[in-house]
Design goal:
With 437 residues, this protein is α+β, with helices and mostly antiparallel strands. It is built from 20 helices and 13 strands. A hairpin with a 5-residue loop joins strand 11 (341-342) and strand 12 (348-349). The longest helix is centred in the C-terminal third of the chain and has 21 residues, at 415-435.
């Protein structure tokens, strides 16, 4: 049969083409006449260079091969078989919470992330309180019960997003400062890097020389190079040395590095040295960084900020400390991903609970095994685990200690009592200022 005859037959039976579109899967060819042919593109259709007389071949689901000339083709679309199956399911799925959620779960199993997100968003449009869909979208429930994106939650906690990571504004400022270092600062990088390498030398004289050179640094322009080389060093002694050096450098350039080290260093000794270094600077410029850290998503950072404010704070930080007495944090835990079962009597069984043989269940139910039974699986069945996000309110002892030191009061973690006291205290102080001769 001539090629043109094949084309004519195809174009004269649009119902047949529609049937192929419903049954076939994967790639498809759109004809200029408006029809579609679905199936698997063959080698000639995958060629990047074509002319008007070249043919495009596609094998349909029934196994037949259909060839059309390029001049009759409007477009050629190649896609995976699973995407075609998704399109079939999508067209047949009802616009209901249950079916959209089922389709999103199917997409998750098939690793169709973009398609899954589409249906998850539709679920939360249909049901604004659908917790599994919100969690799957990365949404988090805030303290008022509202669902928000992680970006929104982190922004409310004082974070900014930079290159996919959440940072405190002062951290971002330090990064941007490093990115725009001056020519004078850039000149220090090579020297500081060399002296730091000497600290790891096997030669005692070289180690001593490196230490002496570093301790002799007093120029503010060297702070960026010192931070780059030492702030995340795995060697605690070297981080302590770094804090000692920049604490003695005059000006404001050492201030942010010291604050960051006091909040993020894993060593209490280094953190305390950094707080001491901040105390020799303009403390008022450091307080906003610690106040913002009281809203940090990590509970340990909140308490470290409390430790610093206990030493550096004043009356101006009392309201923020009261707000941070109890903070809510999110934790990711692993739980068994095992669905609950049903016993032989029809009663439900908790997830992960061992299923007893029916005859044993019958003996237990009839009282013939008064001492119970012990179920021992051999070999033990591995249990698949899944991540779950939970929220927990944390009482921050370091924040309370800071309040006790700054106020001389102790209302424990009773925030209303603290606020009542602070309102009365502030009013009394204002009255004294007005009556002062």
């Amino acid at each position: 049969m001539a090629l043109r005859t094949v084309i004519a037959m195809l174009l004269s039976f649009p119902v047949c083409l529609a049937g192929l579109a419903r049954e076939a899967r994967a790639d498809y060819v759109t004809l200029r006449s408006g029809g579609e042919i679905r199936g698997e593109l063959l080698a000639d259709a995958k060629s990047k260079t074509r002319n008007e007389n070249q043919t495009v071949s596609i094998r349909t689901l029934s196994g037949a091969t259909v060839a059309v000339v390029q001049s009759e083709v409007e477009s050629i679309v190649r896609r995976r078989m699973i995407v075609e199956e998704y399109e079939t399911r999508r067209r047949s799925a009802a616009d209901s919470i249950a079916e959209q959620w089922d389709l999103a779960e199917w997409c998750r199993e098939k690793m169709l992330s973009k398609e899954r997100e589409t249906h998850l968003r539709r679920v939360v449009e249909l049901d604004s309180d659908h917790a599994p869909a919100h969690r799957a979208l990365g949404h988090i429930r805030d303290s008022k019960g509202r669902w928000s994106t992680r970006d929104e939650i982190m922004a409310a906690r004082g974070y900014v997003k930079y290159k996919g990571k959440y940072l405190l504004p002062q951290e971002l400022e330090l990064i941007t400062q490093e990115e725009r270092v001056t020519e004078a600062e850039r000149g220090w990088f090579k020297r500081v890097r060399m002296w730091r390498s000497w600290l790891d030398s096997e030669r005692l004289d070289r180690r001593n020389e490196g230490l002496a050179q570093l301790r002799a640094v007093h120029e503010p322009d060297a702070v960026a190079a010192l931070a780059k080389s030492f702030k995340t060093s795995p060697n605690e002694e070297q981080r302590f040395l770094y804090v000692e050096i920049i604490a003695k450098i005059s000006g404001d350039k050492p201030l942010q590095p010291l604050v960051l080290q006091s909040l993020w260093d894993e060593s209490r000794r280094v953190r305390e040295a950094a707080v001491g270094g901040v105390g020799h600077k303009d403390v008022n410029k450091a307080l906003p960084f610690y106040i913002r850290a009281l809203r940090n998503g990590l509970n340990l950072v909140v308490n470290r900020a409390g430790d610093a404010l206990a030493e550096l704070g004043n009356e101006t930080v009392i309201p923020q400390l009261i707000d941070a007495l109890v903070t809510r944090h999110q934790y990711i835990i692993l739980v068994p991903d095992v669905p609950g079962g049903v016993r032989s009597d029809g009663s439900s069984m908790a997830a992960g609970q061992a299923m007893l043989p029916p005859n044993i269940e019958l003996l237990l139910a009839s009282g013939q095994l008064p001492y119970g039974v012990r179920v021992q699986e051999y070999p033990p069945t591995p249990v698949r685990m899944k991540e779950m996000t939970v929220e927990k309110d944390e009482e921050n002892q370091s924040v309370l200690n800071a309040l006790n030191l700054l106020t001389g009061q102790n209302f424990g973690f009773n925030e209303p009592a603290w606020r009542k006291w602070y309102t009365a205290h502030r009013g009394g102080a204002a009255k004294k200022r007005k009556t002062k001769p």
